[in-house]
Fold:
Amino acid sequence: MERLQKIMAEAGVASRRKCEELILSGKVQVNGETVTELGTKADPEVDEISVDGKPIGVEKKMYLVFNKPKGVITSASDPQGRKIVTDYLKGITERLYPVGRLDYDTEGLLLLTNDGHFAHLLTHPKHHVPKTYHATVKGVPHGSELDKLKKGVMLEDGMTAPAEVEYHDIDPEGKESTISITIHEGRNRQVRRMFEAINHPVIKLKRISFGELYLGNLKRGLYRSLTKEEIEGLLKQVRLSSKSSKQVTASETSELTSASNAPIKSKETWRPKAKANNRSKAPRSGRDEQEKPVEGQGKPKRSSRSDHRPGKSNGQNRTGGQGRGNKRNDRANKQGRSAKPSKR
Ligand code: URA
Structure:
């Protein structure tokens, strides 16, 4: 049982506040009876909820992946008149909302849906779905500093959970570097704060994957629908990520997908991957299949020293054991092909 305004908002009727207004103005019926109490609860599976006599919940579920440009707000409106995500969703009449958030200055993969349950499953902290970012930071962090991020660093809201961290690209002059970081939490400005904690502030941040879903070659400012395999892959990821706590069962997420009108195969059994951090080898779903992640492809383009920090050579810089990617690989990744090793 859930509050009526919550059910209505999740069904795409309007914002929760607008739904409250609809209830108070006597426009909402539950099983044919008008309801004006805001505390009223209902079961969307059982009760028939109508607005002005029209049953809700008939909106088709939509699942989009959007390549958010920098300088766009991840919310439904902005009092300051800045660009918002929905400015880019021309032709979409459904009321979509983001699955989690990206900062105004962060670009990259953002999921959008009108399926509240799906969004909730993917963003709930207990499911710790991995999200990978390319963080371009000031200077070149030493391997021992990246190790701190791998183990967890103390932020003002507590220790971060272990992260997977690898060098992705290094400026030969040492002015900046791009680090690939995978986190399993979704705290506010978390990646930026993690790098601040090791004194390498983020210059540019791009999310390249969410669970098993990769941004691939989707152009900045554009979106596409998820395939049913991709939706299924994300739900599988929820089961995988929370398997130790046994919070979500296969049947719960299978029910979700069928309830969402997504033509998903019925209750399939799943097997955990061999290693949570071996993401470059993990099978991925749908059209991301060709889009190889960048780790470990080709030779490093730039410095071949084991320590990329001028004047240090204790060999601690490699944190992922899979080598570093490079911009050539990044380009290749965006274009959905494998990179050739650099000649250098
Ligand atoms: N971490 C950040 O610091 N910002 C984002 O937008 C996402 C993760």
In short: The pocket of uracil is lined by residues 102-103, 106, 189-192, 205 (CB under 6 Å). The two ends are 62 Å apart (CA to CA). Confidence is low (pLDDT under 50) at residues 246-252, 254-344. Residues 130-210 form a domain with the Alpha-Beta Plaits fold (CATH 3.30.70.1560).
